[in-house]
Every structure is written in C-alpha cells, then in structure tokens.
Amino acid sequence: MLDDLFCRHNPRLGRIVRLESAPYVDRTSFHLVELEVELEEGSVLRLLLKDLGRKNLHETARRVKPGFLYEPLREIRTYQEILARDRLGTAHCYGAVVSPDEDLYWLFLEKVPGVRLSQMGDDSPWLQAARWLARLHARFSRESETLNRSAPLLHYDAAYYRLWLERVERFRSAGLGRAVRESLVETYSRAIERLTRLPSTLIHGEYYASNILVQETREGRRIRPVDWEMAAVGPGLVDLAALSSGGWAERERTEVAAAYHDALLSEGSPGLSFEDLLLALDDCRLHLAIRWLGWAPDWSPPPENAHDWLGEAIALGEKMRMR
Questions:
Q1: Which of 116, 144, 180, 279 has its CA 20 to 30 A from that of 38?
Q2: pLDDT at 303 over 80
Q3: Are 21 and 47 in contact (CB under 8 A)?
Q4: d(Cα 213, Cα 34) in Å, to the nearest integer?
C-alpha cells in the first residue's frame, strides 16, 4: 500500500524497486515512519512519512494539546504551497496523501541529516539560525495578507493572544495568588496592544532549538528547521524569542538578537531599530511564557522546553514596569 501511494504521488521519480520502512526513533507528537526508497535508475531516497491524522496523535499530545491548534492540513500545505517556492533549506516535500473521511493525512518529507541545534555546544550555529530566521521573515514580510490563501495558518491577532491569557486564568489562578495573577493580566494585556502593532510575516511558530537541525555539508553548515505544525502569520520576533528562550544570559540573548537584526538589514528589511527590537522581544518572550502556562492544566512542557515559565513571566513583568 505504501509503495502504491508513494508511486501515485511521485510519478516523476520513476519505478520503485525497493522500499523499506521502520518506525522513526525520535519521539514526536505524531507517528513517524522512516523510509528508504531505491529507484530503478539506482538512486536511493531517505524519507520520513509523517502521519498527521488525529488517531495517530501521541496519547499525551492528544490529551494536552489545545484542540484549536490541531489542523493537519496546516503543515502539509505550508510545505507544499509556501516553503516549496523558495530555496530556504527546509525539507523537500515529496507529496502528501489526504483523505479526511479516513483521517488520513500522510506527508512525505526528505529525511534531513543533521544534529539538533539544542545539542550543539558552540555559539556559531545559534547565530546562524538567527540569520536564517531573518531571511525567512524578510522573504515573506510583504505576503502576510495573502499567506492564508495557501495554507490554514494560525493568525496572531488580539483574540489569539487573549485566548492564552484566558487559559492561564482558568488553569493557574488557584496556584498563582491574587497579586501575581492580577500583575500578569495587567502586564500581558498591555503587551498584547504592542504585539498587535508589530509587523507580520510567515513564522515557524515553534522555532525552538529542538526543532532546528544543523547539517554539515561540503559547503559548510546548513540550518534546516523541521516540524511546521504551528506555522502562522505573526510577529517574526516570536520565533526569535523561541530560539533564545530558556536560561540564557542577557548578553548571549542580545548577541543572537543582533545577528538577527543585522541579517534583516542585509536583506533590505530594516523594520525596528535594535533598541525597539529588544523591547518587542521581551513582549514576545512574555507571550511564550503565557502560552506554556496556558497550554493545559496539571501539565509541564517536555524536557526540551522545560523552564520556569512562571518565573520568567513574573521577571519580565517587573522589567516592563521599570521601563
């Protein structure tokens, strides 16, 4: 069956003479199958089959992932209709099989060879990831009004931001204490006003180091972001906030922001001054903290995103009140 489906959606590749499959070793929210495809002319493709159907969503993800975020066509159409247009280094898409009546959403992708950025010790690939991000945002900065015609992207508007605040109030109020809760509500509400004024572009939505592969090639390192399930139209700095999230020293976070800003300038997309960018980056960091706090009740982020998000939200609130 897999052989027939792949051939049907990739006729230009020619006849398959060998196809081997095995479960992918890394755990993700969705079921992944690793494929090795040998073609009649001798080439061998290494692919991933990502099953985005709800029935194959990992049990924990099915229980805690907010329902309004689930849209299997988002990642499929993002790869097919948006990322395929440009040579950005994202995984090549070999097609998809979609049958909503059967809850069948299969996405065939290049298996990107590389190491997760979170496992890289030196600073240079982090700065390179920031520069790659700037190129992505500059490329789509003039298409924010039309991107949703290509894929059912999330949209970072005031209602979206407020939804996360409502979830925090619903899930966390009992454990926060009145003073902390009121302070978070006030601080984030003011941040929402600023966030909605930031320029929009295509964003990855979860540009954390665990979703960024670094590939070594003869030409040098390549940045290869994966997992576009949360692709959206929103402020590019949300992605930069995710990249620099966690226990960074302020100096390190500023260096990453400077690499991003310099790359934006080189792409002819000046945007904010560097000082204003740093202020807006704090608003985006606060949004990420609120999002993790409002993800689900009685739940903690996976190890790769583990962090004291409440402590970060409180610290950012204090910092903002001192501006």
A1: 116
A2: no
A3: no
A4: 17
Q: What is the pLDDT of residue 145?
A: 87
Which residues, 6+ apart, have CB-to-CB distance to 318 below 8 Å?
Answer: none
Q: SS3 for the chain, per residue?
A: CHHHHHHHHCHHHCCEEEEEEEECCCCCCEEEEEEEEEECCCCEEEEEEEECCHHHECHHHHHHCCHHHCCHHHHHHHHHHHHHHCCCCCCCEEEEEEEHHHCEEEEEEECCCCEEHHHCCCCHHHHHHHHHHHHHHHHHCCCCCCHHHCCCCEECCHHHHHHHHHHHHHHHHHHHCHHHHHHHHHHHHHHHHHHCCCCEEEECCCCCHHHEEEEEECCEEEEEECCCCCCEEEEHHHHHHHHCCCCCCHHHHHHHHHHHHHHHHHCCCCCCCHHHHHHHHHHHHHHHHHHHHCCCCCCCCCHHHCCCHHHHHHHHHHHHHCC
Place of tokens 């059912």: 152
The full length of the chain comes to 323
- Give pLDDT tens digits for 22-39: 888 776 788 899 999 888
CB atoms closer than 10 angstroms to residue 278:
17
Architecture of domain 2-110: 2-Layer Sandwich (3.30)
- Tens digits of per-residue pLDDT, 24-77? 877 678 889 999 988 887 888 899 999 999 888 887 777 888 999 999 999 999
Domain boundaries, the chain: 2-110, 115-321
Average pLDDT over all residues of the chain: 90
To the question of pTM greater than 0.90 for the whole model, the response is yes
> Would you tell me which CATH number, out of the four given (3.10.105.10, 3.40.50.300, 3.90.1200.10, 3.40.50.2000), belongs to the domain 115-321?
3.90.1200.10
